[in-house]
């Protein structure tokens, strides 16, 4: 006996140490996980690019639709008469 009673924490620590000692990682585990992570990252980027293209196309389509459905008559801004021409300066004046 060690003189010290074994409590639940010590028992749990010994059990987990025994369990962890028996774990052997696969030799290619890191490469496999890294390949999976890169695949997911490419998929995320492709999805984002497609989403951005769809939003851009929808905005263009909405703008073209709005322009196509404008009334035939010109807008008030374009009905103003041409501005008056300034008087011609006589030759030789500064």
Task: Outline the structure in words.
- The chain is an all-alpha fold.
- It is built from 2 helices and no strands.
- The protein has helices at 8-21, 29-68.
- The protein is rod-shaped.
- The model has no long low-confidence stretch (mean pLDDT 85).
Short description:
The chain is mainly α. The protein has helices at 8-21, 29-68.
Number of helices: 2
Name the structural class.
Answer: mainly alpha
* End-to-end gap: 117 Å
Please mark out the parts with pLDDT under 50 across 5 or more consecutive residues, or reply none.
none
Q: What is the 3D form?
A: rod-shaped
Backbone CA Rg: 39 Å
Q: Secondary-structure element sequence?
A: HH
Q: What proportion of the residues is helical, as a percent range?
A: 55-70%
Write the layout of secondary structure elements.
Elements: H1 8-21, H2 29-68
